[in-house]
Amino acid sequence: MQQELASPAVYVTMPYGISYRDLEQMMAERGVTVDHTTIYRWVQKYAPEIEKRLRWQWRCPRSTSWRVDETYVKVGGKWAYLYRAVDKHGNTIDFYLSPTRNTAAAKRFLGKALNGLKDWEKPMVINTDKAPTYGPALAELKAEGKCPEETEHRQVKYLNNVVEADHGKLKQLIRPVRGFKTLRTAYATIKGFEVMRALRKGQAAAFNLTRNMQGEARLVERAFNVGPCVLAEAVQLVNQQLELQAA
Q: Which residue of 9, 27, 33, 240 sits 20 to 30 Å from the alpha carbon of 163, by its own alpha carbon?
């Protein structure tokens, strides 16, 4: 029962940037009494699970030309660094929250982004800003066989406009949270924001049967075995279309 209540609450919080208190009031208007601190705990529990369970669906780079950059997130009164990578079309590839901004952090992030990709999904070009950390990080990953030797490292400022614009849209979701107290809670929440942003970009469109926001919500629910399975839904949709054609 808790999972069935938590799923829509977490889904609404993630893509729309609604504060926990506002969501508490919205749910109360619909006859569901739940405290904003409970919604916060649901986000901490289920947002990382949403990212984990849907990762194979949304994470499929459509281009081998990547844009990599980091943005700032306030955690416990200090700045942390959110490393992010998108392809040239703006599709999210991966992200990593770090308390430091150095070569080791850049290497951890790039290693995470490359991990699990098929050979044809790995980048031919990685564009970054002028930060001196990315070059050595890529060199180390190539030496360890984790990054293709032929991958080119570019530092062309205007090419990163796409990832910088995407930072701004993500920040719009983060802002209503009003800050994070710890790196763990920040990363858990951001995982939910990132995966819902990816779904909103259409990165799991093949699994969104209705091609709309309801389909996105059903993706999340199916990941937690809430409601009918995807096959049952597909059969139901086909039957509905046949009935419409026959009418």
A: 9
The Cα–Cα gap between 236 and 227 comes to 13
Q: Per-residue pLDDT tens for 162-203? A: 999 999 999 998 888 877 999 999 999 999 999 989 998 999
Separation CA 18–CA 153 (nearest Å): 38
DSSP 8-state secondary structure symbol assigned to residue 115: T
Q: Please say whether the dihedral angle defined by the alpha carbons of residues 116, 119, 120 and 123, taken in this order, is positive or negative.
A: positive
Residue written as token pair 């829509």: 8
The tally of CA atoms less than 13 A away on the side-chain side of residue 26 is 11
For residue 227 the two structure tokens come to 């409601």
**Polymer length of the chain:** 247
Q: Is 192 helix (H, G, I), strand (E, B) or coil?
A: helix
Per-residue model confidence as pLDDT tens digits over 14-27? 667 778 888 888 87
Compute the distance between CA of residue 115 and CA of residue 111 in angstroms, rounded to an integer: 6
User: Which region holds residue 146: left if phi is over 0, alpha if psi is between -120 and 50, else beta?
Assistant: alpha
Which residue is it, tokens 């930060």?
131
Query: How far apart, in whole angstroms, are the C-alpha atoms of residue 214 and residue 199?
Result: 12
221 C-beta neighbours (distance < 10 Å), count: 17
Alpha helices in 74-180, H assignment, sequence order: 103-114, 134-143, 161-174
